[in-house]
Amino acid sequence: MSRKSSCKCTDKSRFASLVGVPVPRRRFPVFVLLIQIAIIASASPAALSVDVLKSTGGVPAHIAGRFRYPIGFQQSAFGQYFIFDRRAHAVFGIDEALESVWEIIQIGAEPGRIIDPTAFACAPDGTFVVADAPNNRERIQVFSPVGFRIGGFFLPGRVRARVVFENLVLNGIGTLQYTGTSILMSWPETGGLVTEFELGGAARRTFGLLRRTGHEDDRELHLALNSGIPLVDPTGGFYFVFQTGDPVFRKYDREGRLLFERRMQGRELDSALANQPTTWPTRKTDEGELPLVQPTIRTAAVDRAGNLWVSFVVPYTYVFDRDGDKVRTIQFRAAGIVAPNGLFFGKNGRILVTPGLYAFEMAGQAGEAGSAGQGGSAGAGGSARPPVLPVPPVLPILPIPPVQAP
Predict the structure, then answer these.
(1) Pairing of strands 51-54, 326-333
(2) What is the mean pLDDT for each group of 10 consecutive residues in the chain (406 residues)?
(3) Bridge partners, 262 (sequence order)
(4) Which of 197, 203, 311, 348 has the fewest CB atoms within 10 Å of its CB?
(5) 380: how many CB neighbours lie within 10 A of its CB?
(6) 259 φ, ψ to 5°?
(7) What is the rounded distance in angstroms from the CA atom of residue 322 to the CA atom of residue 253?
(8) Mind listing the domains of the chain with CATH numbers?
């Protein structure tokens, strides 16, 4: 009898050490624990998987072939598409059916035209802004949907090109965002992360404290590591995504008060972050010697539900919900893997992406990419695949109820 009792005690002690919960010397329902362990095991692989979005269409090849270097692909609420062609120094319009194209803004240094443009942004009402640099002076102009100039101003001084990637200036006016009534820009020289301008050029406010970098004694490097992308949350408030250094984003309310800060991590970024430099060589420019700082983030955008989409230099995109938690890891595929340098959320939940002028479905229902035309435009979508289902929540491990002795 004593031998049998000793055996039971040993088994229970081993189980208690595995679960981490002291277990009295009585019988218990093991099946409850086994079911919960199975739920955890089944949910983990899905939570780590990459959701591949395949192109469902885009600008047809016979239209895309007209553009030289399109880096902006956006859409108004009434359906018209806008193409910002940086190399052609022009903005084009395309009808909602993607059947015809026309030039809206032409090359030129005079007001109402653009020269050496760097950034473009469109509002839901179809008005848009373009940042350019006539005579090396940074200018922002506001246009109606048909191309009439309705405002504009020159920036005071000159914002230095501290963050450059693939011949694109990613700081200063390169971070331009347009709300329809004001213009947001990353301008750490002012002592804050985000500066909001009125359409007439007056600085309305600056908000967001600069982050600590450990390089405060090197002003140019400190400012480069505080460059980022200001974004408007349609549900209220703002995001700010740091483009260089450790990938971090912040959420602010409508008044510019900090709500939270989140560090972006994932196995897709491990190699890139492990190779982050600790010293930065300088490069000679017309503005003197500046540190050569490479970005970790190519672009970012916010969808209509307030979710933040961040595309990295490596070809992956993370999606974060309104609480700052990562909910999806995405890779875009068309004729091949697409590393976005521009994201825009158009009508009917479609994502408009450059390079390539592709369109993707947000929900994950995407067809196979068709043949790519000149300029990388997407062909017609192919067969659909089932939607990506949400990962079931992981239930907590409940304490095992004691069994009353008979």
Answers:
(1) parallel
(2) 47 49 50 51 56 95 95 95 96 96 96 94 96 91 96 82 66 85 92 94 94 90 92 96 95 96 95 85 72 88 96 96 96 94 91 96 53 36 40 42 49
(3) 249
(4) 348
(5) 14
(6) -100, -45
(7) 12
(8) 12-46 (no CATH), 50-361 (2.120.10.30)
